[in-house]
Amino acid sequence: FEIYNDVGLVKNRDRSVYFIHDKGIRFNFINNFLEVYFPLHSNNGWEIAGPHYEEKIRFVLTTNFKDIFGYLKRGRM
After folding, report:
1. Distance between alpha carbon 18 and the CA centroid of its chain, in Å?
2. pLDDT number for residue 47
3. What pTM was estimated for this model as a whole?
4. Residue 5's closest CA among 50, 32, 41, 47?
């Protein structure tokens, strides 16, 4: 697992620039192919304590079979 921290600036038309951030835990079940992100804190406060936390959990699933096959062929699982 890894801890992540994202920061950025957002600018929309007719609005001033504002700072955004979020922090959480990332689980790499298969690095670069299956990753799950659990947010802990953001501009909205403690995400884990908020309603509908399960809707804020994100994942990455790579479906590029050429990359997956090359990864398996190198024996890096």
Report:
1. 21
2. 94
3. 0.71
4. 41
3-state secondary structure of 21: strand
Q: Is the dihedral of CA 43, 48, 51, 52 positive or negative?
A: positive
59-29-34-39 Cα dihedral, nearest 10 degrees? 20
**Residue type present at position 50:** G
pLDDT tens across 6-54, in order? 999 999 999 999 999 999 999 988 766 789 999 999 998 999 998 999 9
> 3-class DSSP state for residue 15?
coil
Cβ 25 vs Cβ 3: under 8 Å: yes
Query: Are the beta carbons of 5 and 37 closer than 8 angstroms?
Result: no
Amino acid at 23: K
Long-range contacts of 2-8 (CB under 8 A, 24+ apart): 2/26, 2/28, 4/37
